[in-house]
Amino acid sequence: MGQLDGKAAIVTGSSRGIGAEVAKLLAGDGAAVVVNYRQKAPRANKVVAGIEAAGGRAVAVGADLTSPEGPAALVEAARESFGGVDILVLNASGGMETGLGEDYALKLNRDAQVNMLTAAAEVMKPGSRVVFVTSHQAHFINSVPTMPEYEPVARSKRAGEDALRAMIPALEEKGISLVVVSGDMIEGTVTATLLDRANPGAIEARREEAGRLYSVEEFAAEVARMALADVPAGHTEYIGGQDYLGA
């Protein structure tokens, strides 16, 4: 028996990387999981197959969170497949991709986050938990400068966090708690790869400055842990990057 038996979770952006690992961990603890992807169906199906092979329950759902129908599609899939939504992990993010428009970072990192939570909150029961995943580079952007290549994304993610935090009073009225997990750069993520491509040596420099960087698996474990952690609404869990905490 897992701690999440009988619970249903949506993990956005979970066909690979941190999201995929979080989905596997939640499923391993008993939750039925909606694995979300935007384009890469085979990757998402592989995550689902792995969960099912381990005895868990999951379904892959393609949905572009920046589209009007994307968030609703994920909620409907969770409701139809598993009876509702108890855990929402807002992991999907981006903005360093090319060819998606100058305002894509804000659309995904702020607007889509709010729309996803708004849609899910309609069916979430009292006691449900929302986990927003962000980075120190975004969370602390107003007090600690980041690399120029990442600043637009960092500011859009900070705008997303602020918008979600503004929803906390209304969520608490429904018995839903929202917490934030902020992490230093994570080894092996798409963002880290793109940053290192735009600014060669950036990851190595940050590794030396911080002493160590968390792996995808290590960080995902912390995100999954916050799905049940006994912390108040609005709590921020900091992972790595101790130098930021003194800022």
TrEMBL record:
Coiled coil: none annotated. Keywords: Oxidoreductase. SUPFAM superfamilies: NAD(P)-binding Rossmann-fold domains. It comes from the Bacteria. NCBIfam families: PRK07806.1. Belongs to the short-chain dehydrogenases/reductases (SDR) family. This is SDR family oxidoreductase. The lineage of its organism: Bacteria, Bacillati, Actinomycetota, Actinomycetes, Micrococcales.
